[in-house]
Design goal:
Layout: H1 2-7, H2 19-32, E1 38-39, E2 45-46, H3 49-61
Antiparallel strand pairs: 1-2
Length: about 60
């Protein structure tokens, strides 16, 4: 039930226990939501995690 909710599929029967399927869906969603790089206000791309975090904070402070 946990993996069914985590995968975001509501149309499965509650008795379905195909955990490999649910694990792969969750893993794919996590990879899709990961930001590898962002573009700052000057137009250059930032790829380091610390630089991305700093730019995000500065963006929302402005």
């Amino acid at each position: 039930m946990f993996w069914q909710q985590k995968a975001g599929y509501k149309w499965f029967e509650s008795g379905d226990r195909n955990t490999k399927f649910f694990h792969s869906l969750v893993k794919g969603r996590r990879q899709k939501m990961n930001m590898a790089r962002i573009q700052n206000s000057q137009g250059s791309w930032l790829e380091e995690e610390e630089d991305i975090a700093t730019e995000a904070v500065e963006h929302f402070q402005n």
